[in-house]
Amino acid sequence: MTGNTDAETEDQLQEAILAWARKYAASRDWIVNPNEKQLGAVVKGLARNTIRFDEQYCPCRMRTGDLEKDREIICPCIYHEDEVRNDGYCHCRLFFGNEE
Ligand code: SF4
After folding, report:
1. What CATH number does residue 91 fall under?
2. Which of 4, 20, 31, 42 is most buried, with most CB under 10 Å away?
């Protein structure tokens, strides 16, 4: 066992989540947060929740502990389309509508 295994796994997971988020955003004609620091923080939160809970729970919302209810906040959550439409970005600021 090396002490780096978990960190490497988390890094790889973050890369995978970021690649997924970019692809998902592009498919909706959106973009991911152009602020790299904010983007990295959300992706890190998603990766940590995935490792801890085995689901990509939103890092900006409270889990209830009720698995059925918490499905609503697996990213992309049930709220994100309305948020992007109404506010220009989702609650976590992962996805931004493309203004152009
Ligand atoms: S608010 Fe954004 S980051 Fe959080 S689950 Fe919804 S879509 Fe994902």
Report:
1. 3.90.460.10
2. 42
